[in-house]
Design brief:
heterodimer, A: alpha+beta, three-stranded antiparallel beta sheet, B: alpha+beta, 38% strand
Chain lengths: 99, 133
């Protein structure tokens, strides 16, 4: 499997992922517990539905599955997909190849 | 075949302030493409990650601590926030101790629950982490 294979999904570094969360404009609190950064969103739902954990270990990245699962749950998908396109040249399920 | 999956949490308060939390609940792990272990904690509605088996308990402890802090600081309190997630109060002693469980009697749910890894943990001194009100 090569880097360019469409089976190889892009990951996102945690600094960028945190920026996407902050840029949502919904964050009312941010603090750290050990290696975990905790974001609380200011929506009127139970806290389980508005608490995001980002844990800084290893390569400090989240894989495609984890990033999209969080983005879907917290309505950040458009911003995440835009980030993948701009920074990983990945769009609509494939890497962009310059002809 | 009778299966028994314990999903319990014991919450201790002093003068209404959260002091300690003891819990046992299942979590589910997934090995990521990057070699990290991604951990799903559905009974807290949270997801986190670890560097592998030796680090997973620490990741879970941080997630539970985060849940307690956010529930007390921004939510309706730990007990109420757990009830929103389907936990039910089984025992309450004065204002100091609450025991909640999340046990289903549905056979297929119980069978699915038994596939998770059981995590047991105790958090103490939460009152010193939480800012005084």
């Amino acid at each position: 499997m090569t880097q360019n294979s469409d089976d190889y999904y892009p990951s996102i570094d945690l600094e960028s992922l945190c920026e996407l969360i902050r840029n949502s404009g919904k964050v009312i609190d941010e603090f750290k517990v050990g290696d975990t950064t905790v974001f609380t969103l200011g929506e009127k739902v139970s806290i389980a539905k508005r608490t995001i954990l980002i844990r800084w270990v290893g390569d400090n990245c989240y894989d495609f599955n984890q990033a999209t699962s969080l983005a879907y749950k917290y309505k950040l998908m458009p911003a995440l997909l835009q980030w993948f396109e701009e920074h990983k040249l990945w769009k609509d399920g494939a890497y962009i190849v310059n002809q | 075949m009778e299966q028994n999956v314990n999903i319990l949490i014991e919450i201790t308060r002093e003068d209404h302030r959260l002091v300690s939390v003891k819990t046992i609940m299942p979590t589910w792990n997934r090995l990521g493409a990057d070699g990290k272990t991604y951990i799903s904690i559905p009974f807290l509605g949270l997801e986190t990650c670890s560097l592998g088996d030796n680090d997973t308990d620490k990741a879970f402890e941080e997630a539970l601590t985060a849940f307690c802090i956010v529930a007390e600081k921004h939510g309706l309190g730990l007990e109420s926030e757990l009830e929103f997630l389907g936990w039910t109060l089984v025992e309450k002693r004065d204002d100091t101790l609450s025991l909640l469980s999340n046990n289903s009697t549905n056979e297929s749910i119980v069978a699915a629950l038994s596939t998770g890894d059981t995590r047991a943990i105790q958090l103490n001194h939460l009152d010193s982490i939480l800012e005084p009100v």
